[in-house]
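Researcher: Here's the sequence for the chain we discussed earlier.
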Amino acid sequence: MNKTELVAAIADKASLTKKDAEAVVNAFTDTITKELKKGGKVSLVGFGTFEVTKRSARTGRNPQTGATMKIAASKAPKFKAGKAFKDALN
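Model: Thanks. This is the structure I predict for it:
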């Protein structure tokens, strides 16, 4: 499912116009992004938790040449599914 299909499904389920549903999806993703940028986390009980993890600097290899290279430290988003969400899938 891509964003357009998600917007259409939300519009249908919540009896909204596609324009309103798209605004909701955009607001949701923007809010989560802003909170993670600040270093916070977003917990949706029963669904899961969005948070930021830190990756330390490390050494890697260029797959084409085999030469070693340094990979800089970075931050990455992480999602941990909640119990109710996992149970719904199984």
